[in-house]
Amino acid sequence: MRSFTFSVSYWVLSVTYAGAAAFAALTPSQTATGWIIRRYVRHMVQAMQIFAGIHIEARGREHLPAGAFIVASKHQSWGDGFATYDQFDDLAFVTGDHLERFPLMGTILRKLGAIVVNNCGGHDARQALAARAADAHARGRRILIYPEGNLAKVGEKFRYRSGVWHMYRDFDMPVVPLASNLGLFWPQEAYRKTPGRATLEFLPPIPTGLDKAEFLARLEAAVEDRTAELIAEATGRPATPAVLVMTPDEIARAKTTAANP
Question: Candidates 3.30.390.10, 3.40.1410.10, 3.40.1130.10, 3.40.50.150; correct CATH number of 56-259?
Answer without folding.
Answer: 3.40.1130.10
